[in-house]
Design a protein that fits this description.
about 500 residues; alpha/beta; Aldehyde Dehydrogenase, Chain A, domain 2; 2 domains; 20 strands; binds NADP nicotinamide-adenine-dinucleotide phosphate; binds magnesium ion
């Protein structure tokens, strides 16, 4: 038998990652978590808690404190109190803490990976090989920047107390993108994780303690949208850094307008994945898998709009369908799973509704022949072809494993289609002709453009959007500017100075 035929016929049995350590960690804390304020665990003033579950089987994982405005107030006060000491440390001293956090993350990487998969539903292969290594890399990278701040960013200083609000799709990675640069630049932090996925942020809080981080430098206030709103509104916060939906980003921009708070917004996307006729189509298919089926398609920069050159479109669709038929959806802890669970029933419902809209608009839908597991929140990989730019599914961010395909004839048409969106986060261009790729790339309005690859990230490379995908960058030197202000600003107080007319002195004429 040829090797190729052997692979075709081979059946893979389940290979679940052992979850004992994660269960022991949860049990040791009686599956109940308080707020992390000033280096201590504190119960919420309201006494309210909510549950976090495993979306792959709906099992209860833990009870989580719901922080209210008073708790946010306590956390902001702790961050304010910790600020002068933290900001006055030398860059080298701050770097030592960041290196310690990075090493602790690496030391506990398996626990982090399993916990993230349990809480979010994403495949262990991804948390183990992508999320957690990138988190460690982010802390190492920013440890370097802490040491370099005073020379590389001379004339700049920390912003102050930073409120950070993050989504559930990459819980620990988004935490790292926020906390690492903030601490490196001398700020203190109050972080609000997403309601669906608070667990790895709480493990991270424990690690802050074991790394000896001074109390109050990092505070974690768990809760829902209202907790985030309370943080946004709090007068003691100097900057808000938000990652999440465009809708909530809009609310936050309004809430912070006129308050003097610095703001950065990392929002949604509907990124084009452009395939020219000369591309290696088999590589393209693997690129498509990474673009839209990585993390169940719950990726802000997912290549969710496939733009294929007309001459190769049908051939490409056939190859993609064949690949989709072989994708495996199931238990996120199974190491040979490609697609895990959708984070929550609300999200699953949104995906189903948008797919229904596509079908109602008469768009051609294709899904594999097999069924998803029935016990959790799963959705199969889905391909829509013969989509037109005006269709709802071509414009709305579906945030699930759903790919919509359109065709183009000329490079100019490809650019036009790519830019026919209110977002501008990322794009991916596939061609064997590097001159064509380099010609197209700057014409696509997107924060990141990948050529013959997709979803490639590094701590040294800034990431962020245009238009309704937000503003500000995370990662690289450009990302640091979100967490510093020019020292000259101190010379200009926030409140306008009212110049009074000098009174003429008595006894002197005119
Ligand atoms: P979301 O609903 O906007 O929530 C994001 C965070 O904001 C959560 O912690 C949420 O709390 C909180 N929140 C909700 N309402 C709030 C309010 N009124 N004021 C302050 N905070 C509030 O987004 P999501 O559904 O979690 O995440 C998916 C979205 O994030 C997608 O649109 C995706 O494209 C985007 N995203 C963007 C990037 C990027 O870098 N550009 C990266 C990842 C994700 P609860 O969780 O408790 O509701
Ligand atoms: Mg959960």
């Amino acid at each position: 038998m040829k090797i190729k035929d052997l692979f075709e016929t081979m059946e893979y049995g389940p290979a679940p990652e052992n979850r004992d350590a994660a269960d022991q960690w949860l049990d040791a804390r009686q599956r109940e978590f308080q707020l992390f304020i000033n280096g201590e665990w504190a119960p919420p003033v309201s006494g309210k808690y909510f549950d976090t579950i495993n979306p792959a089987n709906k099992e209860f994982l833990a009870r989580i404190a719901e922080g209210g405005p008073d708790d946010v107030g306590r956390a902001v006060a702790a961050a304010r109190q910790a600020l002068p000491h933290w900001a006055a440390l030398s860059g080298h001293a701050r770097a030592r803490y960041l290196y310690a956090l990075a090493r602790q993350i690496q030391k506990h990487s398996r626990l982090f990976a399993v916990l993230e998969s349990l809480d979010n539903g994403k495949p262990i292969r991804e948390t183990r090989d992508i999320d957690i290594p990138l988190v460690a890399r982010h802390f190492y990278h920013h440890a370097g920047w802490a040491q370099l701040r005073d020379t590389e960013l001379a004339g700049y200083r920390e912003v102050g107390v930073v409120g950070q609000i993050i989504p559930w799709n990459f819980p620990l990675l988004m935490l790292a993108w926020k906390i690492a640069p903030a601490l490196a630049m001398g700020n203190t932090v109050v972080l609000k994780p997403a309601e669906y996925t608070p667990l790895t942020a709480l493990l991270f809080a424990e690690i802050c303690r074991s790394a000896g981080l001074p109390p109050g430098v990092v505070n974690v206030v768990t809760g829902a949208g209202e907790t985030g709103a309370a943080l946004t509104k709090h007068e003691g916060v100097d900057k808000i850094a938000f990652t999440g939906s465009t809708e909530v980003g809009r609310i936050i921009r309004k809430a912070t307008a006129g308050s003097g708070k610095k703001l950065s917004l990392e929002l949604g996307g509907k990124s084009p994945f452009i395939v020219f006729e000369d591309s290696d189509l088999d590589s393209v298919v693997e690129g498509v898998v990474d673009a839209i089926w990585f993390n169940q398609g719950q990726v802000c920069c997912a290549g969710s709009r496939l733009l294929a050159q007309e001459s190769v479109a049908e051939k490409l669709y056939a190859k993609i369908r064949a690949r989709m038929e072989k994708l495996r959806v199931g238990d996120p802890l199974d190491k040979s799973i490609d697609i895990g669970a959708i984070v929550a029933p609300v999200q699953l419902h949104t995906i189903e509704e948008l797919v229904r809209k596509g079908v109602d608009e008469g768009v051609r839908l294709w899904q594999p022949s097999w069924a998803c597991p029935a016990e959790g929140y799963f959705y199969p990989p889905t391909l829509f072809t013969e989509v037109s730019p005006a269709h709802v599914i071509a414009q709305e961010e579906i945030f699930g494993p759903v790919l919509v395909a359109m065709t183009f004839r000329t490079p100019a048409e490809a650019v036009q289609l790519a830019n026919n969106t209110r977002y501008g986060l990322a794009a991916s261009i596939w061609t064997d002709n590097i001159n064509l790729a380099l010609d197209i790339a700057p014409q696509v309005k997107a924060g990141t453009v990948w050529i013959n690859c997709t979803n490639v990230f590094d701590a040294a490379s800034g990431f962020g959007g245009y238009r309704e995908s937000g503003f500000g960058r995370e990662g690289g030197k450009e990302g640091l500017y979100e967490y510093v202000k020019q020292t000259e600003e101190d010379a200009f107080p926030d409140k306008p100075v009212v110049l009074k007319k000098a009174k003429p002195k008595a006894g002197k004429a005119g």
